[in-house]
Amino acid sequence: MKRRVFLAAGASLAASAALRGWSAVPEAVGAIAARSLDNADVDLPGKAVADLAASLRGELLLPASPGYTVRRRVWNGLFDRKPALIACCTGTSDVRRAVDFAREHRLLTAVRAGGHSISGKSTCEGGLVIDLQSMRGVRVEPEMSRAFVEAGSLLGELDHECAAFGLATTAGIVAHTGAAGLTLGGGFGRLGRRFGLSCDNAIAFDVVTADGKFVRSTEDHNTDLLWGLRGGGGNFGVVTAIEYRLHRMDPVILGGYLMWPIDKARDVLRFHRDSLAGWPPELWVEAALVWDQGAPMAAYEVCWSGERAAGEKLIASLRAIAKPAFDDVAALPYVKMQSSLDESMANGKFYYVKNGFLNRLTDEGIDLVLDVFQRAPGEFILFFDPTDGAYHDVASDATAFPNRGALYWLGLVANWPSPEGAETKIAKIRAAWKELAPLASGFYTNLADADEPLAAYRENYGANLERLMTLKAKYDPMNLFRLNANVPPKA
């Protein structure tokens, strides 16, 4: 029996979608106010919007649609944007239709997978959001040591499925991060010194390019695109699936935190610097300066993924720096370690980050870092993420990811629960980073802040920029996909 559902203007046919497998918007909705690629106000014809909705298996949400308010929210609460349309895609067919609509109407377009963009670029004001949250699934082929991951999947889902087979790959440090966005920008993680960046382990991508075509990029086909997707961000299309190379690893690791009073921080940071080159790749130790119940502390976050006895000896050398005030390093499931920051980095908080890469760390640099940190009580944490080991095994021009060869990734991270005082907090972090910036070069594009000018992104790609611009001109000559670590199409 056929059924009809009548809705008020602006609502989506959620019930109809459930019954028929697609969504619709009545033509009577009238023109929809939207934002164009060149930031102009435009009116989208109601019939065109209704036709788009009818062609999607997933819902098309308008501002008056049930579910719109929840769906438009992203991880970083700093960005409270209201897109004109949200295309909730259920598969590649929906993505292709949404891309065609965006191109034909020259709409400002954002692509949202996990929604973890620190700079808010997984949403937009007045444009179209191509939402991949419903495209979630991880399939592991243990005999091939491969994982096939849909673009809306989260890192915790990838880690969980891999661990069941004694396999793993580098996958960030927060389980509710989207796998696709992390990988496209590079992808650091607790296994990075051992297995390299997430993008180094991505061996194939399914992509819908700006012309609405489906392209599969592998190490044998469309290799130019594969090069660009490994660290070039979302410049070239909407990734709908990724195939990862996996590695054998015990799903139980040694992990946890060591913390010392701030008067031991100089010794802790110097020990990290002096020992790093001699540590095996199975050891990942992030040094940090943190605030614990209002007190400044030095900390190590430790992850040992190798043979247990060897790991115990190395961790004993960390404890020998000075007696830790806190020590919970122990055997635990890797997936539990991967979710250890999920609560502190929860959705909806307000986040701000500044970061850069260090090619060396001098005693004077350590003293400066300590001074800057202690003069901003409670404002941010400061971390030194090691970027040696397997990260250095890949040449700087072998992938689009530009920042090979550094020893550390240095970052200031702040989060707070409400919008009050945001401008003051951000100003303090910027001021602190201004003092530290001379120590660093470049930045990690996945955690670049919203104020980073386009010129900085282009400078950050360095010698890879020319090739990226050529690739951009081939796959996205109109720069439809510009809400990312954007590079211009080569003229």
| CATH domain class of the largest domain | Alpha Beta
Count of individual helical segments: 15
Helix content: 25-40%
Shape: globular
Average residue-wise pLDDT: 93
What is the domain total for the residues? 3
Portion of residues in beta strands equals 15-25%
The chain-level structural class is alpha+beta
User: How far from one another are the termini?
Assistant: 56 Å
The CATH architecture designation of the largest domain is 3-Layer(aba) Sandwich
Please tag this protein with its features:
Vanillyl-alcohol Oxidase, Chain A, domain 3; Uridine Diphospho-n-acetylenolpyruvylglucosamine Reductase, domain 3; 27% helix; 491 residues; disordered N terminus; 3 domains; Uridine Diphospho-n-acetylenolpyruvylglucosamine Reductase, domain 2; alpha+beta
